[in-house]
């Protein structure tokens, strides 16, 4: 089941900001949530199982996935040839909602999923409303022309100052992004210990 509660609370629990708002809150409270704050909380030593579980949750929440979706991606990657970490990342990064977020067309992964669902996103000139659809190499993903004037996309375009990852080509003027190639693990700004995630699903 996906987490539908406050994103700031979830961000503090996982130790990573999932939204721009969470960044501001975590600067003031860089510790997990709790009734008595930072000083009065007694935190037992983390077990090996909890370490594995925490890393799995960090990866899952960064891509806004159901447990079943992440498990299937990891299990398929494990049985394929090549570097397992790269294969997992490639399966997750080529989801349409993840690509929209990574290209800077949406400020958060949650917004990216909503934009796809509401038919604001075109793939090779055709609208798609399935967030899990795979983006293939040389596919062009763009924001529908009529949607570019919406405040959410205007804000996103104003933040396109930093260049996208090297495997994505972006044209800010038309809010278009193209997948040049499949990414490697070290090119993707995902915060988690991937070997622990693989071990978690290998139990």
Overview of the molecule:
With 203 residues, the protein is an alpha+beta fold. It folds into two domains: 98 residues, Ribosomal protein S4/S9, N-terminal domain (Ribosomal Protein S4 Delta 41, Chain A, domain 1), CATH 1.10.1050; 80 residues, Structural Genomics Hypothetical 15.5 Kd Protein In mrcA-pckA Intergenic Region, Chain A. 42% of the residues lie in helices and 8% in strands. It contains nine helices and five strands. A hairpin with a 4-residue loop joins β4 and β5. It is globular, with a radius of gyration of 18 Å. The two termini are 20 Å apart. The model has no long low-confidence stretch (mean pLDDT 85).
Give the key terms.
alpha+beta, five-stranded antiparallel sheet, 9 helices, Ribosomal Protein S4 Delta 41, Chain A, domain 1, 203 residues, Structural Genomics Hypothetical 15.5 Kd Protein In mrcA-pckA Intergenic Region, Chain A, 42% helix
CATH-level-4 superfamily name of the largest domain? Ribosomal protein S4/S9, N-terminal domain
H/E topology pattern: HHHHHHHEEEHEEH
Beta-sheet strand percentage?
Answer: 5-15%
Number of helices, counting only DSSP H or I runs of 4 residues or more: 9
Spans where pLDDT lies below 50 across 5 or more residues: none
**Major β-sheet profile:** 5 strands, antiparallel
CATH architecture name of the largest domain: Orthogonal Bundle
How many domains, as an integer?
Answer: 2
The secondary structure category is: alpha+beta
Mean pLDDT: 85
Radius of gyration: 18 Å
The CATH topology name of the largest domain reads: Ribosomal Protein S4 Delta 41, Chain A, domain 1
């Amino acid at each position: 089941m996906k987490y539908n509660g406050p994103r700031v609370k979830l961000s503090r629990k996982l130790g990573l900001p999932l939204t721009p708002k969470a960044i501001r809150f975590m600067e003031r409270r860089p510790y997990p949530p709790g009734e008595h704050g930072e000083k009065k909380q007694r935190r037992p030593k983390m077990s090996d199982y909890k370490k594995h579980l925490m890393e799995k949750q960090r990866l899952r929440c960064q891509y806004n996935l159901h447990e079943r979706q992440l498990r299937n991606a990891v299990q398929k990657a494990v049985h394929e040839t090549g570097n397992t970490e790269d294969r997992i990342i490639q399966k997750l990064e080529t989801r349409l909602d993840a690509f929209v977020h990574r290209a800077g067309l949406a400020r958060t992964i949650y917004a990216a999923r909503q934009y796809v669902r509401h038919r604001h996103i075109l793939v090779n000139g055709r609208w798609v409303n399935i967030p899990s659809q795979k983006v293939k190499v040389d596919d062009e993903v763009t924001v529908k022309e009529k949607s570019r004037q919406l405040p959410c996309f205007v804000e996103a375009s104003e933040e396109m100052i930093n260049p996208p990852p090297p495997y994505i080509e972006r044209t800010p003027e038309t809010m278009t992004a193209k997948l040049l190639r499949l990414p490697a693990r070290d090119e993707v700004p995902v915060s988690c210990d991937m070997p622990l995630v693989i071990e978690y699903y290998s139990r």
